Amino acid sequence: MRALLLSLPTSRFAMLPLCAALTLGLTACGDTAKLPPGADMGATPTLPAPVRSLIPTVNIAPAQGWPEGVMPQPMAGMTVTALATGLDHPRWVYTLPNGDVLVAESNKPPRPDAGFSIKGWIMGTVMKRAGAGVPSANRITLLRDVDGDGKAETRTVFMQGLMSPFGMALVGKELFIANADALVKVPYEEGQTAITATPVKVVDLPAGINHHWTKNVIASRDGSKLYVTVGSNSNIGENGMDIEVDRAAILEVDPKTNTRRLFASGLRNPNGMAWAADGTLWTVVNERDEIGSDLVPDYLTSVKDGAFYGWPYSYYGQNVDVRVTPPRPDLVAKALSPDYALGAHVAPLGMVFAEGNSLPASLASGVFVGEHGSWNRKPLSGYKVVFVPFTGSKPSGKPVDVLTGFVSPDGKAYGRPVGVAMDKRGALLVADDVGNVIWRVSGHVGR
């Protein structure tokens, strides 16, 4: 294979048929997970030796959508309904105090032309098969379930003309939206079904190549500060660290002075954030790819002000990634280990703490996590919503499946979970960006 790649023609157009053939054949390449199920999860996951290969493992569930009459499967004792269907790549959900639900219908922004490469061609083709190739609607939609039957009777365009919007946070009468390139705000009055005001920029956010474009925002308990996630511009810094400034990080924003500072770094692609009862900030992080189906576990962790979590120089604490040059042993020595492994390549995006929910008592204390699903692992992992139980302020035990059935028996993706949130009645909401649905999971309909 190495000899074949070295002999490839350099012309972009001459390479197109060959790239297509390579893409179709990639599922026959790469390694298979060897760890026992669950060994890559929990507070002390097993970390085997890295597996290196010229061509990475590519194994993804091609996007199909939900056939008529097919739905995801909730855990025993729960019910799932479609709060809304027919959305356009819904990525994130946010519940307003009056019970209205905001949905960010979004996808990656336009990317500057970085030139042609075999790897870029292959990855672009694979991501399209996964359902990530649709244009961004750049819209936020409002859903309102008036009678509490688990189905939204009202659907309105709340905001449009945004730039790949993702996270949302209401502070007083201001709604903050994390676009791919900036944190913006608009005035909001309770009960509004549409915003016509022009968004005002609070701070710029790192943009550009946008290898990881999603940016989430959460407010501090007193509303004085905002915290914004920014993913890396690469897998392991291969595009140079000069374009990674304030990336792979959580930024703290002061909305009164329109300034930002680095809060925590070395987090390759953080997305969901939530506050624990003790006031600690938690996040879920997508770790690096291309060193085997068993590495590296994606994770859930508390986040400390000023802390460094390893990326790109090390993973899961101080395990050095020898691919990264030049090395930084000084930073590796400072790298903190995350609190809890969710499993290799599960791609956690959404997270929310259980709060006054209508779900079974076994789900009363812990975190719900939306796992978007793997592309760099055999067999597939993720593609479900799990619950991580907490005892006090720490995770305890292995993840529990809450919503499954997103992959068909023949390996197609009916849907892929992204954002999760609790609604006003205590049910769990799940954004499904391939199925174009917002799912509602509760103890029974109407709760």
CATH superfamily: TolB, C-terminal domain
Q: Rg to the nearest angstrom?
A: 21 Å
User: What is the total tally of β strands?
Assistant: 29
Q: Helix/strand-derived class?
A: mainly beta
Helix content: under 10%
| Main sheet overview | 6 strands, antiparallel
What would CATH call the class? Mainly Beta
Q: What is the architecture at the second tier of CATH? A: 6 Propeller
Shape: globular
Uncertain spans, ≥5 residues at pLDDT below 50? Answer: 1-26
How would you describe the overall organization of this protein?
By secondary structure, the chain is mainly beta. It is 8% helix and 33% strand. It has 4 helices and 29 strands. Strand 9 and strand 10 form a beta hairpin. Helix 2 packs across helix 3. The longest helix is centred in the N-terminal third of the chain and has 14 residues. It starts with a helix and ends in a 5-residue tail after the last strand. The N terminus is likely disordered.
